[in-house]
Design brief:
By secondary structure, this protein is mainly α. Helices cover about 80% and strands about 0% of the residues.
Length: about 400
C-alpha cells in the first residue's frame, strides 16, 4: 500500500490531469461554439452550465464517498470526465457541446472527495498545508492545459477532435493509474453507515456557526477571484492592446504563482500561524492585487498586481478549506466539503455575471467589487475560531 506521501502524490496527479484536460478544452470552447452558430448568450451558458451542475453534484459525490469510499468516487469522476471529452471531440452541434459540459460537470465535481481524502490521511494541524496541493494542481492545470490546447487546436483546425480525444485519453489513463495504485483512504469501519442523505451534510452545516461563517468567507473570496475570468483578457486588450496569446500568458503567470505558493509556501506557514491567521493575512494581498489590476495604467503594474493576487489567493483558499475540513465531524467531511464545493460553484456562477455587467460600465469596476468582497470575507472571518491543536 502506498505511504501517506505517496498517496498524496497520486491524488495530486489525479487532480492535476483532470484539470489539465479541463484547461485544454475551456479556452477553445467559445470558438467551436461560435462555429456552430452560438451567440454570446449561448457561449456564456456553456461556461455557466458546468458550474451549475457542480453546484448540485459536488455534495452528492462527497456524501457518497463518506459511505462507499473516496477511491471509487474519484475513479468514477475521472471516467465521467473522459466520457465528456469524447462527446466534446465528436460534437457537431450545440446540443452535443451542452451535453459534454453537463457530463463534464458531473465528472468534475469530485474535488471535495479529493479534499476529504487529504483530510483522511493527514493530521488535523497539517490539513491546510496539504489542501494547498489541490490549489497547486489547479494552478498548474491552468498553466499546462491552455498551452497544450493551443497546440492541439493546430492539429485539427476548426475541429474539437484532437483536443477532445487527448483530454479524454489523459483522464482515462489517470483513472487506470488510480484503479491500480491509489489505495482507499477510509477503512470499512470508518465509513458512514447511514443511507445516502444529502440532508445530513446540510444539517451539519446549519447546526455549526463555524461552518456557516467559513462557507460565507469562501463564497466571497471565490466570487472575487472569478471576476477575472470574463474580464482580464478584455482589460488587457482595451488598456494595453494585448492579444489572445498574451492574455493567455497572463492567466498562465497567475496560475503559476498561485501553484508555487500553495504547493510550497503555504505548507510551511500553516504550522506557524494557523489557518485563521493565514486566511486573514492573505486577504491583504488578495484585495491589493485586485485593486492594482483594476487601476493599472502601466503593463508592469498589471503584472505586479497579478503576482500579488496569486499570493493572496494562494494563501486564502487552502486556509479556508483547511478550516472547513476541521470544522466538520469525521464521518461527514465528504458531505460538508461537497457543500463547500457547491458554494464555490455558486460563486463561479454569480461572480462572472456580476463582473461582465460591471465591466460594461467601467473597466475597473469588477476589480473594485472584488476587493470589496475580500473586505467582506475579512470581516466575516472575525467570527472564525482557530481549531484546537494549531497555533493561533
Amino acid at each position: 500500500m502506498a505511504q501517506p506521501r505517496g498517496r498524496l502524490g497520486l491524488l495530486f496527479l489525479a487532480v492535476l490531469v483532470d484539470l489539465v484536460g479541463f484547461g485544454i478544452v475551456l479556452p477553445l470552447l467559445p470558438f467551436y461554439a461560435r462555429d456552430l452558430g452560438a451567440g454570446g448568450l449561448q457561449v456564456g451558458l456553456l461556461v455557466t452550465v458546468y458550474s451549475a451542475v457542480q453546484l448540485v453534484m459536488a455534495p452528492l459525490w462527497g456524501r457518497i464517498s463518506d459511505r462507499f469510499g473516496r477511491r471509487r468516487v474519484l475513479i468514477l469522476g475521472l471516467l465521467g470526465s473522459a466520457a465528456a471529452y469524447v462527446i466534446f471531440a465528436r460534437a457537431d452541434s450545440l446540443a452535443l457541446l451542452f451535453l459534454s459540459r453537463i457530463v463534464g460537470g458531473i465528472g468534475g465535481s469530485t474535488i471535495p472527495v479529493a479534499q476529504a481524502y487529504i483530510a483522511d490521511v493527514t493530521p488535523p494541524t497539517r490539513r491546510a498545508g496539504n489542501m494547498g496541493l489541490i490549489g497547486a494542481a489547479f494552478g498548474l492545470g491552468f498553466v499546462i492545459g491552455p498551452a497544450l490546447g493551443g497546440i492541439l487546436a493546430g492539429v485539427s483546425p476548426g475541429s474539437p477532435s484532437a483536443p477532445g480525444y487527448v483530454a479524454a485519453g489523459l483522464c482515462f489513463a489517470n483513472a487506470l493509474v488510480a484503479a491500480l495504485w491509489l489505495p482507499e483512504s477510509r477503512r470499512s469501519r470508518q465509513r458512514a453507515t447511514s443511507r445516502f442523505n444529502l440532508g445530513a451534510a446540510l444539517t451539519e452545516v446549519r447546526g455549526s456557526r463555524q461552518v456557516k461563517i467559513i462557507l460565507a468567507g469562501y463564497l466571497f473570496i471565490t466570487m472575487a477571484f472569478s471576476t477575472l475570468q470574463p474580464t482580464l483578457s478584455l482589460l488587457a486588450s482595451e488598456r494595453f492592446a494585448l492579444g489572445a496569446r498574451q492574455a493567455g500568458y497572463l492567466f498562465a503567470m497567475l496560475g503559476l504563482v498561485s501553484a508555487v505558493y500553495q504547493g510550497g509556501v503555504v505548507r510551511a506557514l500553516v504550522p506557524r500561524m494557523g489557518e485563521r491567521r493565514l486566511f486573514r493575512y492573505s486577504a491583504v494581498p488578495f484585495a491589493a492585487g485586485l485593486l492594482v489590476i483594476g487601476l493599472a495604467t502601466d503593463l508592469r503594474l498589471l503584472l505586479a498586481g497579478l503576482v500579488v493576487l496569486g499570493i493572496g489567493y494562494g494563501g486564502a483558499v487552502p486556509a479556508v478549506l483547511g478550516l472547513l475540513s476541521r470544522a466538520a465531524s469525521s464521518d461527514r467531511q465528504g458531505g460538508v466539503l461537497g457543500v463547500g464545493q457547491s458554494v464555490g460553484s455558486f460563486a463561479r456562477v454569480l461572480g462572472p455575471s456580476m463582473a461582465g455587467a460591471l465591466f460594461d460600465v467601467r473597466l475597473a469596476f469588477p476589480y473594485l467589487a472584488g476587493a470589496l468582497l475580500i473586505l467582506l470575507a475579512l470581516l466575516v472571518s472575525r467570527g472564525i475560531a482557530q481549531p484546537e491543536g494549531a497555533t493561533r
